[in-house]
Amino acid sequence: MVIVTPTDQNYWIGAARDLSQRGINIVAVLLEAYSFGHPVGNEDLLAELSISGISTYLVREGDDLAQALARPYAHGVKPLGRSVQPG
C-alpha cells in the first residue's frame, strides 16, 4: 500500500504500522509541507515513520520525482547523504 500525504498529523501512522505488522507492505510518500507553502512542517513524522519501520520517501516542491523516489529517507541523514550531527 502506498500512502501519499502532505499532512502534519500523525494519526495515520499507527494504522499504517498495524497493517505492516499484519504483513502488508507499506510505503509512505511524505510531501514536505513547508516547501509547498504550508505554515506547519511535517518533519516530525519522518522519525516516527522510521521508528515504525515504514519505508518513507520525502518529496519537496520542485523535486524530480524519479530522483525523490529513487531512495528512501534515512533518519539522521540529510538528503545529500551527509550525516546529521547532534546539536
Question: What report would you give on this structure?
Answer:
With 87 residues, the protein is of the alpha/beta class. It has one domain. It is 26% helix and 16% strand. The protein is built from three helices and three strands; from the N terminus they run E-H-E-H-E-H. It has a three-stranded parallel β-sheet with strand order 1-2-3, with helices on one face. Helix 1 links the parallel strand 1 and strand 2. The protein is globular, with a radius of gyration of 13 Å.
**Which structural class is indicated by helix and strand composition?**
alpha/beta
What is the chain-wise order of helices and strands? EHEHEH
Average pLDDT level: 86
Cα separation of the termini: 36 Å
Helix content: 25-40%
What number of domains? 1
Précis, in short:
The protein has 87 residues and is of the alpha/beta class.
Primary descriptors:
87 residues, alpha/beta, 3-stranded parallel sheet, 3 helices, 26% helix, globular, disordered C terminus
Task: Set out the fold topology.
Layout: E1 2-5, H1 11-21, E2 27-31, H2 44-51, E3 55-59, H3 65-68
